[in-house]
Structures are given as structure tokens and as C-alpha cells.
Write a structure and sequence with these properties.
heterodimer; A: 190 residues; Arc Repressor Mutant, subunit A; 2 domains; 11 helices; B: 323 residues; alpha+beta; Jelly Rolls; Phage tail protein beta-alpha-beta fold; 3 domains; 7-stranded antiparallel β-sheet; 33% strand
Amino acid sequence: MVSDDILETWFCSEVLPNEGALTSFIRNNWRVGEDVVDLRHDIYELAITGARRGLPDNARAFLFAIARNHLINRAKRSRIVSFDLVSDLEAVRHDPDMLTAERYVLAREALKRAQEGIDQLSPRVRQIVLLRKVDGLNTQETAARLGIGIDAVERQLAMGMKALADFMLGGSGKIIRQKFARKVRKENGA
Amino acid sequence: MSRAEDARDTAAAWIIRRENGELSDEEQAAFDAWLAASDGNKAAYWRLKHSWKDADRVGALGIPAAPAAPHKALIRYGMPVALAASLVAAFWIGSIPFPTEPSAQTLAITTYRAGIGERKDLALADGSHVELNTRSVIRAASAADHREVWLDDGEAYFEVKHDPRRPFVVHAGARTITVLGTKFSVRRDGGDVSVSVLEGRVRIDENPARNGRLASATMITGGMSAISEGRSTLVTQLSESRVENALAWRDGMLSFDRTTLADAAAEFSRYHRRPVIVTDAAAAGIRIGGNFQASNVEAFARLLRDAYGLHVEMTPDAIKISS
């Protein structure tokens, strides 16, 4: 049994950097766009449960193997399975060099991504996030400063937190990811 | 609402609640229960917490939240060394065109782990030598102009190959330790970071703090030890033997000197899946000394029974010690 502390470190440093690639993989292989977030959530859950028995040597390969199996199982259950889907999924390969390069870029660009993530928030949410992150105000102080209710502050802070996570973990459309997506598509087509 | 959205919203609410202050006992229990309820909840919570913490970096950018934030100048002035260094690195990446693809060697980040009770000797790409103690995780990266290690968990001893052109930087929680070539060890216990230096000199920087406060820097040399907790750093000049004691784990030994039994038990528990628990305050306060084999917790327990007349109960889940 791997302890939760180790699992958390592993999940944040080895799994989350793949979120962009994982999200495009699901999107490319699943026809219902609105299922993507739910499917990703299931895959993360399965990955954590699996890794608790022992951390895998290669987190990316492990994650994509789980993703592939999960999509096939879900497709079977919903009886929409097609040979296309299965054969596409068979073609998935992991690419270790891509992984290190991507992670390095991610680490180096974290500051820039945080800045861009903040920039794309709506003005009100951005203001509340900055009061928290830059001025260090808690929700009560923020509510007093802006003259709005604590509920409203917490709702908008939660909104900002979720939007930032989506953006910082994969929504930024990196060149590397586009290349990866193209490569997967090319392999599938071949 | 879908399961994923539900977990995400609950995770966000808990993060906000925890940032607002200490949880009450009931809240803590509710939070623990929610987190334990499913790995999906853990995934949602860890994911949000991780990126939300990453967003702390904007605090260091000095963007004013309100048009006329009075402390903007202070934030700029206080831009810590670590941030400056990362900006330099980002600039370096951006401005020098690579003649070819950067080689995998300069980009590689390697993760090393030691499980419970394990001790590992590692040779890093730059020729430095690292020993990992029980339940420890480090990541190491080596580039042309610097060397970096992240101590994600546990304790590590470093013998850094001297190279004045490539500083060796260890990130441990809220502290960054910079060296040129020396022998030292770093240990993390949650937010606390301790650094013991055997030879040479290291600098310990507080990582970018919120509110644009000036980050503190501490310099320590051979024979010294620094313990950081929150914003404070306590530096002590130890005799050489005390530093050697702090590094005794490298030989698989635990060394105690007037250590309370509670602390000694916690120390042993780091090395075993079966924790050592001292069940009453009278026994917990007993001070003990001596050298023990970390792997042989049974011998330690027997010694407590024979030398101190303590009651020892060994179950498959724990070793319980009481007076």
C-alpha cells in the first residue's frame, strides 16, 4: 500500500502534467464532448486506486493504458462500441522523450501560465483571486473590501480556482501538445 | 450535477475553508471523511490544490489587485532570488535559439524514491552523490548552467561535486538551499525543513512569501544546523559529533541524545510500516540516549522493557509502549 502523501506527490508531479494530452486523447476518441470532464475524473480515480498497490514505473504509459481501457469499457456499456474506436485506441503509444520535454517546459513556464491563467478570468473573478493571492485577504476581508456577501466571494473564488486549474493544467494549447495530437492522429490513420 | 463536478465543487469549498483558518474538530472529521470516501474525491482535491498553489506565483509578479495598491513597490523590491533565477532561466530558454533539439540529457528530470525502511545511494548525472533515507522522494534535473533537486518528501544527504559555474539548488518545501560544493543533509517533516552541514557552506532562502514580504536568507557552514518552521529559521552551532549524529542514518543507525521517548518513537516509525506508539505522557517524556539500528525496532522495544521497565505490546499494527 502506497501512503496518501506519496500518492499525492506522485499524482501532482507525474500524472497532472499529462492532463493536456489526456484531455485531447479523450476528446479525440469519444463522441460526446460533454462527457470529457467526467471521463477524465474517472480515469484519475482509477489511476490513484491502481497506484495505491504500487507506483508504476512510467506514469504516462500507466495513465493512458487506464484511459484506453476505461473508454472501451464505457463504450461497451453504452453499446456504441465501434471497431473504429477500438482500433484507434490500440494505436496509442507513449513517448518518453515527449514526456520529459513537456514537463521541463511546463516547469519553466509555470509563472507565465499562472499569469495567463489570471488574465483570462472575468474581471470580477480576477479581482477576487488577486485579492486572495496578492493581498492575502481571506474571504471575509474580501467581502468587506468589495461590499458583497461572503457567499458571493466564495462562489467566485471557487469559479476562479477551477478555471485556473483547467487553464494551467492543459488549456494553453502548447505546440508540443499539438504535435503530440497530430502524431496520434497520424498513427491512427496509418 | 455530474460526479466529477460535484467532487470539484466540494474540493474548491474545502480549499477555501482551509485557507480561512484552522478547521474545528467536526469540520476536520467531515473533511477527512470526504477525502477518504473515494479516490475520485482525492483526485479532485489534489488537482485543484496543486494548481491553486501554483497560482501563488502571481503573488510574486506584483500585479496590483486594485488600481492603486500601495505595496506594489515593495513587491517589486522584494522579488526573491529564486524568482529572479527562474525568470533568468525562462529568458534563457526564450532568447537563445537552439541549434538542434535540446538533448534529452539536459532536459531530463529523474525521480528517485526510497520506500519505508529503505536507504538508497544515488549517483547524479553531474557526479554528485546522494543518499536517500527512508520514505523519501527526490527529483533531480541537470542543465548546462545549474543543477536542481526537489526534495518532495523525507530526507537526503548530499555530497555535491564542486562546480562554481553550476550552482546546485535544493528545493525543500518553503526553503531553497543553494550550494557550490559541500556535504550536507536536508530533511522535511511536513512544513518543517532542517538542514545539517558537514562541510562547506550553504545558503537557505525562504521561498516567495505572500503579501510581498521580504524573503529571508540564512547562511550556514560546516558544523551548523538550521531548522525552519513557517517563516522562522533557527540556526545552531553544533559540535561535530552532533552533526555526525544527525547524519547517523547514513549508516543505518539512529542516534539519540537526551531525546524524549515520544520523539524517538516517531523517529523509529519513519522506518517501519508498524508505528511505535507511546500511549501515556509519563513514558513519552522519558529522555533516552544511545545509538540504535534503525531496522531493528524490536531490539529498541526490548531495551525499553528491560532497561526502563516499560510495558511493551507488539501487535501486527503497532508497537505500543506504556509505563
